[in-house]
Amino acid sequence: MGKHAEIMAVKFKQAPDVNTAIALLHALCTKKPVYSPRIANKPLALYGAGKLGRMAKEYFQAIGIPVVFVVDASAEQYKDDLFWNDTAIINPQHVSLEHKQNILLAVCVATVPFTTLQSFLHSDGWLDFVPFYDITEAYRDLHPLGNGWFSGPFGAEEIDGVDAVLAKWSDDTSRAHHLQFIAWQYLREEWFFEGAPVTTTDRYFIPQVVSVLHHNEVFVDLGAHHGDTTGRFLELVDTQFAAIWLVEPDLYNMHCLQEKLKSRLVGIESRKIHILSCAVGDLPCNKTFFHGLGYASQLSALGQTNAGVITIDELMVIEPTFIKMHLEGEEYNALKGGINTIRNSRPIIVATLYHNRLGIWQIPDLLMNTLTDYVFYMRQHSWSDTGSVMYAIPKERYIGAT
User: How far apart are CA 288 and CA 2, in angstroms?
Assistant: First the structure.
């Protein structure tokens, strides 16, 4: 768990077809991973004061690891930010050589490739730096945040499962992004495919989804957080919809969600909006819940409280037309608990894949084998595998949109 090797950038001239994708997967699986979780065995600083940097500060505070300072090229814009009033934010050019040689830098930026940042940090004199989530993985016994997981080797059944999923994606970009996902989780390599860019501005609402939206949607936002996704949905449908259901178990998130949506929902009939404070899974029950983590609040054995868990099939939703789920690793269970609704109502389904190993093939496989006459896409919406999303769209939507 010491200093890491350099992360490699692997470049391809085009997105792969089915046969090429399967061949690339099999070649990848013959390699030996060299990465592992990273303990903070020296003084720690953060690189990036944005959303991920803020989460990192709160995370390290929660597990008792002090942050010496934060490095950010836009340090000046944070000088009046109360969140950072107890932490120095330094422009990269003002960091001493001594600090660069003796501090572990947790990189809290996912909007550009890690290998791009790696080249800059090397040239700037930094000796030891890793993605933030690689550190969190070393402390899973203390804190549930786990986006830095490592897949480990694939067995024969898993390789067969991934092969089948690669063959069922509806375009080559999906195959490219699926391989990017696996290469990072297995080898910590960044794969690049020309013509299949990572898009950071259209998470949950790729063109294939936006083109089929209508003004009679029943939108179900599972893991609603502060309502940003619902807000974007409202913009795309010009606030014309049949109903919206928001499900969020974290009480602080729920408060922020309600406050944030007040102005957006002015003039909209209250009967069209349903907000539930609960978690979603495969069986109705109560489970321990770790609250206070923002968009990473989740069901966890480390939780401080209990949350009621319901299933999608139990929700009093009449024929949902669009289900978005970002459930910090509960996506697979939530889908299993909603099979009847999904089969009967045939909604658009958008689900995050990157929270655990089930996203490698089990979640796509479940949807691909449950749903008929759907198209399936996968897209990467950030780097360091913090934005892998699956899209399932019923084919009749495209007929209705023409």
Answer: 33
CB of 35 closer than 8 Å to CB of 1: no
> Which residues, in sequence order, are bridge partners of residue 157?
none
Within 198-338, residue ranges assigned H as helices are 207-210, 228-236, 251-264, 331-336
Residue 312 is encoded by which pair of tokens?
A: 């999608």
Domain range annotation of the chain = 9-33+150-193, 44-139, 207-401
Residues in CB range of 15: below 8 A, 6 or more apart: 171, 172, 173, 175, 176, 193, 194, 195, 196
Quote the tokens at residue 340: 């009847």
| Of the candidates 194, 256, 211, the residue with the CA atom closest to the CA atom of residue 231 | 256
Q: Which residues contact 64 (CB under 8 A, 6 or more apart)?
A: none
Q: What is the pLDDT of residues 231-286, one digit of tens each?
A: 999 999 999 999 999 999 988 888 888 888 877 777 777 789 999 999 999 999 98
Angle (CA) 368 15 9, round 5° = 110
Same fold, 44-139 and 207-401: yes
Residue 319's nearest CA partner among 389, 265, 394 is 394
Alpha carbon separation from 101 to 37, 42, 98, 205 (Å, rounded): 21, 11, 5, 43
CATH number of 207-401: 3.40.50.150
Tell me the backbone φ, ψ of residue 88, rounded to 5 degrees: -70, 135
Tokens representing residue 30 in the block: 């013959």
pLDDT tens digits, 133-182: 999 999 999 999 888 899 999 999 999 999 999 999 999 999 999 999 99
Instruction: Please answer whether residues 138 and 341 qualify as being in contact, where contact means their C-beta atoms are separated by less than 8 angstroms.
Output: no
Convert the pLDDT of each residue in 100-136 to its tens digit: 999 999 999 999 999 999 999 999 999 999 999 999 9
**Cα–Cα distance measured from residue 57 to residue 65, given in angstroms and rounded to the nearest whole number:** 9
Give the span between the Cα atoms of 51 and 370, in whole angstroms. Answer: 36
**Tokens 């089915």 appear where?**
18
Q: In the numeric block, which tokens belong to residue 253?
A: 């998130």
Sign of the Cα torsion 369, 174, 389, 37 reads positive
Q: Which two tokens mark 165?
A: 């999923």
* Alpha helices in 138-227, H assignment, sequence order: 156-168, 172-187, 207-210
Give pLDDT, residue 402: 46
Best CATH choice for the domain 44-139 from the list 1.10.600.10, 3.40.50.20, 3.90.1720.10, 3.30.70.1230:
3.40.50.20
